[in-house]
Design a protein that fits this description.
By secondary structure, the protein is an alpha+beta fold. About 40% of the residues lie in helices and about 15% in strands. The chain is globular. The chain binds 2'-deoxyadenosine-5'-diphosphate and magnesium ion. Belongs to the NDK family.
Length: about 150
Amino acid sequence: DVRERTLIAIKPDGVQRRLVGQIIHRFEQRGFKLVGLKMLQASQDVLSEHYCELRTKPFYGSLLRYMTSGPLVVMVWEGHNVVQTSRTMVGNTNPAEAQAGTVRGDFSIHVSRNVVHASDSVERAKKEIQLWFQTKDLLDWESWDQT
Ligand code: DAT
Ligand code: MG
């Protein structure tokens, strides 16, 4: 499905460390299409919905403190198999196990500061995109190379 979409978020450490451009560059270079982008300070409400499946984890409190510690850059990327390919590009949740060449493998060392979020399934991606974006803020633009 060439219209598949995923949610990618650059976490506060990624913004602090000036990695925004490099991360966006990797998705553009791979060939995905940017259809939504914004910088924001996340609210507890949105984050507790975003990470609802982790509510009972021991690290949940510190995860929410980290995610609200500074601005995020939240994006929607579109293209064939974008959910799965993005997960590969982002790398293992634990940077110690993330391959070199992945975002986490190249830019991070600890699971609690792993630079970037990527939706883990097409279903979750749909929910996350709805949670972070209004439909009107997602642009359905046509690539020149497809006309
Ligand atoms: P991912 O972000 O790769 O989808 P996840 O959904 O399992 O991973 O967890 C969400 C985030 O929670 C993860 O990016 C960092 C944090 N996290 C996960 N496991 C953790 C752990 N054992 N200790 C601290 N933070 C953790
Ligand atoms: Mg996840």
